[in-house]
Amino acid sequence: MEADLHEAMGRALELARRAWGDTHPNPMVGAVILEGGEIVAEGWHRAAGEAHAEIAALETLARPPAKDATLCVTLEPCSTQGRTGACTEAIIRSGIRRVVVGTTDPNPAHAGHGLDILRQAGIEVISGIREEECRDLNILFNHWITTGKPFMAAKIATTLDGKIAARSGHSRWITGPAARADAHRWRKLFPAIACGSGTVQTDDPSLTSRPEGGPVFCPRRFIFDRSLAEIGNLTAKVYTDEFREHTTVVTWENVAPERVARLKGQGIAVWTLPAEPDNVFFESFTERCASEGITGVLIEGGPRLLSAMLAAGKLDYLFAYQAPKLLADEDAPGCFTGQEFDDINQAFRLTDVRHAILGEDHLVRGFLSKP
């Protein structure tokens, strides 16, 4: 039976991922109903305000469940009245006698409460099936619900010796098609993407998610340019393409007013934030994002921006793609700079590390911490 539950939870995870990037600020959740060890109904949370996964599965079943029915759901059923009602109440009313949960609600105010309600109603509850996968599914939501702040993640692509480009600045492409496709998949998850103005001038990125065979998705796009000295003639894609209304330039509050006016005259939104120190500047950015309900930002460079955010302690997570290439050139740019460590044990570390092989490339991702 344990193997059946493991397989059923795997299917629930597949269903949850169908709403990849579409549920903010809610989590992705999938659910299946088993009878006689076979899946008879499925459901997933499609978007905020729509039915939760458990309700969707029960509606798909469209009849009373069998006496041996089991509900498998990736996240603890909610126990509070939201726009769609408490899932615990719906489960109790349905007559289901066993519920299998992947992971508990990350909100400390609710964690385990829904499971207690189900148990008090005489329902058998099993938790922790494929728990790490279920928890990893909602890294943005988990951070948002526990801190009230957006999940700030950096993404880098490097050679084996940590270089992000040749000394000339040429960098297309460090990684292969499979790694780039995976990066676009993660772009679809994040409601916002950011980079520095130098990256815009050098690489002219689109900062969109472009899955092969799928529609283009454009999140909120943030361009960091503290002095607005590099806005150039504003012909870059992020200022001129069909998604230009998604672009916001983030700058200092003491920047020359005429430069701000020039951007606004081009129809570009501008956020002016406290100038210094760095930790205040980036904290102001996260607070502004939080006030607008932006649950996560993927920062894609360049090295000055990433290094400044790392030094300010404002990066929560790192996606590190590495290609089997070696430049061995001390003049080729690296990704992070500005730190001085005499002891290797002082280094920043990744925790809850996950690995993926993507063609010839390797992805390492995890939470950033410093001893």
Please provide a written account of the structure.
The protein is α/β, with parallel strands linked by helices. The protein is built from 12 helices and 14 strands. Strands 10-9-8-7-11-6-12-14-13 form a 9-stranded mixed sheet, sandwiched between helices. The chain has a 5-stranded mixed sheet with strand order 2-1-3-4-5, with helices on both faces. A hairpin with a 2-residue loop joins strand 13 and strand 14 (361-369). The chain is elongated and about 70 Å long. The protein starts with a helix and ends with a strand. The model has no long low-confidence stretch (mean pLDDT 92).
List keywords for this structure.
371 residues, alpha/beta, five-stranded mixed sheet, 12 helices, 30% helix, 23% strand
